[in-house]
Amino acid sequence: MAGLDDLKADLLAAINAADSSDALEKLRVEALGKKGRISAELARLGKMDAEERKAFGQAVNQLKDQVTDALAAAKASLSQAEMNSRLAAEKVDVTLPVRPESQGRLHPLTRVMEEIAAIFADMGFVIAEGPDIESDYYNFTALNIPPEHPARQEHDTFYLNVGADGSRPVLRTHTSPVQVRTMQTTAPPIRIIVPGRTYRSDHDATHSPMFHQCEGLVIGPDIHMGHLKAVLIDFCRAFFGMEDLPVRFRPSYFPFTEPSAEVDIGCSRAGGGLQIGAGEDWLEILGSGMVNPRVLANCGYDPDKVQGFAFGMGIERLAMLKYGIPDLRTFYDSDLRWLRHYGFVPSDMPALHSGLV
Ligand code: DAH
Question: Which domain holds residue 83?
């Protein structure tokens, strides 16, 4: 029995001195494992007589329980200490500066579309949309572009296969068909802009087979050319951020408007560069006109009761001019370096103040 007391003192001292969970586990195996010291004591029971076995068995089992309890207690306090020291070592320092995150950029086209929408929203316009795949009727006929009219060739249209009804759908060559769709389904007054994708078979530094336009349409009982001029002058000045930007209306021709006018802004080309707002030169930026009475009639309106104006502009062209982007093709290269250079941080986007339904 004296041997057991020594063993107990020995084991408990070692358990108290253990300084890690690993050390404790080693002690557990040394004491209670199959070949452990307590197990060795238990093995001796077989050779004892009944009397001795009872007393020794009780003592060894008691020792076993004491050692097991001591191991459990030591383990609990060690793991608490280990957790505390891990928490101290791995503490997050909230005062450290935030690691710079790579931030995405908005494409200049997105930016320019938002700028255009924000300006027209302030004037009470709402956004309308239509399909990219159009019928010949909406893209041409309803807009007073008759069959065999040269405009159909000029537009270098992408035609789709002839459908079951014999008609040939087209990828819309302009956003103007949405004028017709809107007038057919909406009673005046109308004040819409139509940003969207358009398609023509053309590809060089200033043309892309897919590009974007923004159409505009205003219809009411007494809308006149003065409204057209005021809205478009205000738009040009707001878009280019120049209150005194010279704006000129030059007579032109579009089948869907009568009279028609191209809108030019003042610029200078001195020294080979282009400076908007300065000098004696002019730069064309959009087409416009009073909606042709034939188009009004095609849409079910009485041209003696309502009239209005329309306009259309190329979004890439406006983006290139405003942000000095020289080649249209780069808009669609998806080159991240280009986007980082010409793109915009989302939080800098203009807000839509009003005009949206
Ligand atoms: N649809 C014309 C184009 O693609 C642009 C345009 C000109 C639209 C005059 C209009 C307009 O609504 O009145 O070139």
Answer: 2-89
